[in-house]
Amino acid sequence: MQTQPTVSREQWLDARLDLLAAEKDLTRHGDRVAQLRRQLPWVEVDKPYGFDGPAGRVSLGELFAGRRQLLVQHFMLGPDWKEGCKSCSYMADHVDGMRVHLAQRDTEFVAVSRAPLDQIERFRRRMGWGFPWVSSHGSSFNYDFGVSFTPEQVARGSLYYNYGEWPLSGEEWPGVSVFHRDETGRVFHTYSTYGRGVEVMMGAYRMLDLTPLGRGEREDTRNKMEWVRHHDRYEAAPAPQPSRLEPTGDEAGRAARR
Prior knowledge:
There is one protein chain. By secondary structure, the chain is of the alpha+beta class. It contains 8 helices and 10 strands. The strands form 3 sheets. A 6-stranded mixed β-sheet has the order 1-10-9-4-5-6. Strand 2 (50-53) and strand 3 (56-59) form a beta hairpin.
């Protein structure tokens, strides 16, 4: 690790104010891009997509669960896969805590994969997730939204993914799509993002970006997320020091009796 210069608090503050100006520029630019995203035209979804869920067969409109907006994670779990994609799982690890807040803004979240439902449910139980997750097995949904590809497409050596030619092969790739449902029940596709755009779901990345070590990823590999594991497959991290921020059993009991 390259160590940074050590300076006085006053010198640090000068440097921090310079960085703050750059951060504010980035925030304002992000706000402008978000406004442009909201101004995108919509496409009505007129194909009758069907999905297998725990309660039976459901339509795309039913995935909204009565809300006006729907966020879909295109989760890479193919019909013959033994487990879900590690990077998609890293994304999904952030979801359950968000859902109560999304609901307050009239927004539902659903993951969709091509694997049959029983395969999805086995992996979901292993991971301990509670968010809705349905199967598009037998449907063209994944293909129509640019995240699944036929063997013939893969054999070409490049794919049309992320709105351009993609130099890598593979039948499954990640994405996030957004849909809106109006008061008549019509469903519209409003937005999709792929490639690094799916980092929108990776809150842990945003926290690591604040640290001196950053993401700590290798420069000499195309797969920057090679370090990511399913959360039950990581080697044990170094044991933390005892923390006074968490109450002991006795302290927790006394607090509960007050």
